Amino acid sequence: MADPKGFLNHGREVARTRPVGERVKDWNEVYVPGSLLPIISKQASRCMDCGIPFCHNGCPLGNLIPEWNDYAYREDWTAASERLHATNNFPEFTGRLCPAPCESACVLGINQPPVTIKNVEVAIIDKAWDAGTVAAQAPERLSGKTVAVIGSGPAGLAAAQQLTRAGHTVAVYERADRVGGLLRYGIPEFKMEKRHINRRIEQMRAEGTRFRTGIEIGRDLKATDLKKRYDAIVIAAGATKARDLPVPGRELKGIYQAMEYLPLANKVQEGDYVTAPVSAEGKHVVVIGGGDTGADCVGTAHRQGAASVTQLEIMPRPNDERHPTSQPWPTFPILYKVTSAHEEGGERIYSASTTHFEGDEDGNVQWLHLAEVEFVEGRLTSKPGTERKIPAQLVTLAMGFTGTDRENGLVDQFGLDLDERGNIARDAEFQTNVPGVFVAGDAGRGQSLIVWAIAEGRSAARGVDRFLTGASDLPAPIRPTDRALAV
Fold first, then answer.
1. Cα(52)–Cα(42) distance, rounded to whole angstroms?
2. What is the pTM assigned to this prediction?
3. What is the pLDDT of residues 382-422, one digit of tens each?
4. Which residues of the chain have pLDDT under 50?
5. For residue 45, which of 9, 3, 87, 77 has the smallest C-alpha distance?
6. Residues 274 and 383 in one domain
7. From CA 234, how far away is CA 287, in angstroms rounded?
8. CATH classification of the domain holding 176
9. Is residue 250 a contact partner of residue 167, using CB atoms and an 8 Å limit?
10. For the residues of 87-100, what is the DSSP string, one character each?
């Protein structure tokens, strides 16, 4: 145990963010560089090394949290990094982007603020990169088997790295012009600078993984042709079909899906554009959707110089604290969150539903009409007399995703079965109805968290390895049927 009295002597302290007035003028990460190391040893000492560490149940990767907390407390960064990488291929991604269900399940969190597990994680991996101890792990011998991975998001990258290290020859196909999937173009730079992706890709290249960008399977290369080339295939194409808002005025110019808007801002940071083709500069912006993607749109609009930013959420405002009966420990609670983007300004409106959009004579959106809603007999119903309109010259739809993209032909060309939710069906080994074709991540699970995507990629890799060789020593942290620890 790190420090038997650590949780008694030290309160919870998280990474410091840069002043709002400073950070909205650039696209760098919002946290103060180097602010974690001076405090992280004390924070790690708050871990109680529980007899039954429920943080393991909260994390689908099965991260060895008490172990690397102990090493971080003792400042044995090499051992901490080894324990961290034992279960997680990309801790610098999860340490920045995961909402930390492990902290919701922390035993200390029963009656105190939980251990800052996420901050300890990112401190360990950043220290490891700075020390040069994150090295390529090329296989000792090759199996002679080939694998194609479709999609380079966290699930695809995790599967590819595991299979490469197992000795298979792996090629990752990505339809975008750069590797990373939504990590690259969906996550704003201020949440995770893309240098973190770039150095992982270089590590994977050194291990032997090959990358093929600008190739969309189903359109640029038929799925049937791909199957002929490889011994096995992993589909990690995500759940990219965005939920739309079919209300009058949806056809007006200036209304975009979040994943039409956010990538353009990221492409500016990549040097592809001087300014984003779709920008919030000087406009009244409305973001429909109260989740993390909506917050990403809010932060992006701030940095582009929006005149105002309003975020709408159809559900009621969540509670500030966990409810002991409706959201008991150790489940992952739905709580009111103030992200870094919300700290930067804007208005948040809950229990609001968009009724229609209004435009000008040129077909540009100008107003959004909304009404308050409430639950009546279990259904959301508009409240009479609450209709009003707010200015909206740029609207982004961040209402989630409904399943795998079928328009590119990938699903039909493979002849894949879908489950009742529109996801690609798979068996206990993550294999689809087509022998040798596996599925990992959101394409099979539905929209989920980055930590689940990495766990899926690692688990699917074991299924592929067994299919190719008859046995596998690769870890499989989850089953396809496993679900988050929630009410």
1. 22
2. 0.96
3. 999 999 999 999 999 999 999 888 999 999 999 999 999 88
4. none
5. 3
6. yes
7. 34
8. 3.50.50.60
9. no
10. T-S-HHHHHHH---
